[in-house]
Design goal:
Elements lengths: L16 E2 L23 E4 L5 E3 L9 E4 L2 E2 L2
Parallel strand pairs: 1-5
Antiparallel strand pairs: 2-3, 2-4
Length: 72
């Protein structure tokens, strides 16, 4: 069965940034930790609605995503 692929590459921006498109689902949350969050860092939710770097208190239900950069 033949098939087609649409959009096999995401070359609309530069490394580390999302290209704005209808499928973009990115949520901005405040950094409530003392350490700066770098691109690609795994993040967990904290009790006040923000995020912190994954630490000893981590459990899978606290995972919220990976830090990224969004171009405007």
């Amino acid at each position: 069965m033949p098939g087609k692929a649409i959009g096999k590459s995401l070359n609309h921006d530069f490394a580390g940034n999302f290209a704005r498109n209808p499928d973009l689902i990115a949520v901005t949350r405040p950094n409530n930790g003392a350490t700066p969050i770098m691109f690609g860092s795994p993040l967990m939710a904290d009790t006040s609605g923000g995020v912190t770097l994954i630490a000893a208190a981590f459990s899978a239900d606290k995972f919220v995503g990976i830090a990224g950069s969004i171009s405007h």
